[in-house]
Every structure is written in C-alpha cells, then in structure tokens.
Amino acid sequence: MTRRFVMRLRRPPFRGIRTPVATAGQSARRLVVLAIGSAALVVLFWAGTTQTIVGQRVADMILYGRVAADLAVLGAATEALAAVSLAFGATAGLGIVALALALGGVGLATAAAVLLVGSNLTAQGLQLLLERPNLLGDVAYATGNSFPSGHVTLASSLGLACILVVPRQIRTPVAGVAATLIAVVGVSTIIAGWHRLADVEGGMLISLAWASLVTAIVVRAQGWIPRRTWGRGLGGRAATIAGAAGAVAVILGAVGIAFAVVDATPLAELIATRSPASGTFVSALAIAVGSSFIACAGYVWAMRGVALEPPG
Question: Of 285, 278, 286, 279, which is closest to residue 252 (Cα–Cα)?
Fold first, then answer.
C-alpha cells in the first residue's frame, strides 16, 4: 500500500503593511449614499423650520439674538458677504473648471461645471418656488421665504469643487480651507441677519448633494485606486480631528437650541429680555461652523482615496 505524503508549507507571519481591498466602486456607492442623505436633510430642514410654529419660533429667535453682536462684527460680516459676489463666483468657477480640465480631462471638468451650475440653480429655484407661511404673526423677524442661502450655496459649491478637482494628495488641506470658507460665509449671513440657520444648512447640503452625485458618476467613469499610495487620499488624522471637532460643535449647538425648543415662554417676552435669544444665536453659529467641517470631512471620507487624474 502506497503512503501518500502531503507537504505542508509553513508560511511565516506577514510583517508588512497590508493594502486594504478598496475599489472605486465602493467610493461611488458611499458618495451616492451621501448625496441621498444630504438631499433628505434639505427636505427635513425646510419642513421643520418653515412649516411648523416651533421651527419658525426658534429660527427667528436666533436672528433676534444677533443684536448682542458687536457693531464691528456686524460690519465685518457684511463686508465678507459683499466679497462673495456673482463676479467672484463666476471667476472662481471658471478657474476651477480650467484646473479640472488640465488635471483630469473633460470628464472631471464637466463634473466640476455640473456641480457649480446645478447647486446654484437649485438654490435659486427653491428660493423662488418655496413658500414660508407666517405662523408667528406680528412677532416674526421677517416674512417671506429665504431658504436656502444663495451665498452659502455659492461658497459651498466652490469649496467642494476645489476638493473634487485637486489631486488626492492635497485633498485634506484643501478641504480644511474649503470648510473655513463655508463657515465664514455661513456665520456671516446669520450675524448680518440675511438668513436663518436653516437657510445656511440648506445651501450647504444642496451643494454637498450635487458634489456627491457628480463625483460618484465621475468616479465610476474614470476613478481608480492607487495601490501603493491609496492612503494619501483618506485625509488621515487631520480629517478625523476636523470632523470630530465639527460634530462636537454641532452637538453643543443643538443642546443650546433644544432649550429654546422646550421653553414655553412667548416669543414676544423672549424678544424683550434678549438673553435667551442671545444664547440661541451663539448655538446657531456653532452649528453653522461645525456642519461645514463635517460636510467637507465627510466628502473626503466618501471619496476614500480614489484618484480622478490619469495614471502616471
């Protein structure tokens, strides 16, 4: 009887750095989920803050609290908003599209253009189509629809477009600059009394939805994962810290606004005392700043190191 010997090879334990199984398709799916979630939040913000008495009460209380801001701060906010003009947006947009064409070809340039045009046309269209019924009567801060903010939409679309077109190696620092730009414009609109908090969040989320959608398409068309340097596009610790800090700011701001929601004091009385409204105003600023960093960090995370420029 013949004995069969089976040779068993003992492999030494792996001591290197394993490359995770990451594909461009996975990034595209994450981006689609981010787009759908952002669009859903736009609807929730609009319905919750414009179609309910509680939402309108809190939104207007935030703006009544802005009287506590220093006159110099109000002036700086107005000047910052004046700089975000249509001419500025057109010039910056053309520059971004030209950069995308040079780095990633027609596909990336088209995606950047669709992101910019789609976001801003959506915002302008919603401002014209949506209605905000006056549920507060004579104590309303202002009447008429202001959702979403055109200034914030413009700043957000420009910032996210920059993240889209730059090489993956510098996405994180560019995302930091973009988040700061969005936060400054968003905070300035509230300080100047031009828009409510929901308007700021709506403009930001509209841009994020468009950015995620067009990025998912272009990732499917020409995205690829560099196996040796895939980690350079993840954002690393800096993106994680920025996103976490943004989340903390949003949570703290939401807690401050929650006190206004449960407070049954009539709005007219709160307007006269000022102090509760001032606290709500500061909470709104924290949410505006925090959400801008969450949006940019989330966008970088969803792309997950995918490269959009040609290999080589």
Answer: 286
Q: Where do we find the tokens 């468009």?
A: 210
CA distance 6 to 8: 6
Q: Does residue 282 contact residue 67 with C-beta atoms inside 8 Å?
A: no
User: In the numeric block, which tokens belong to residue 188?
Assistant: 């300035």
Q: What is the pTM of this model?
A: 0.89
Distance CA 169, CA 310 (A): 14
Backbone torsion region of residue 261, taken as left when φ is above 0, otherwise alpha when ψ lies between -120 and 50, otherwise beta: alpha
Q: What are phi and psi of 12, to 5 degrees?
A: -65, 150
Q: Which amino acid is at 307?
A: A
The encoded tokens of residue 31 equal 């981006």
Longest CA span, the chain: 103
Calpha distance 65→286 (Å, rounded): 14
Say which amino acid occupies 113: A
Q: What is the DSSP letter of 51?
A: S
Strand partners, 224: 307
Q: Which helix H or strand E contains 21, and what residues bound it? A: none
| DSSP character string of 103-164 | HHHHHHHHHHHHHHHHHHHHHHHHHHH------SGGG-S--S---S-HHHHHHHHHHHHHHH
Q: What single DSSP character describes residue 202?
A: H
Look up residue 260 and give its two tokens.
């206004």
**Which tokens go with 232?**
């350079």
What pLDDT, on the 0 to 100 scale, is given for residue 74?
A: 83
CA angle 181, 283, 270 (to 5 degrees): 135
Choice among 32-41, 97-106, 163-172, 260-269 with the minimum mean pLDDT:
260-269
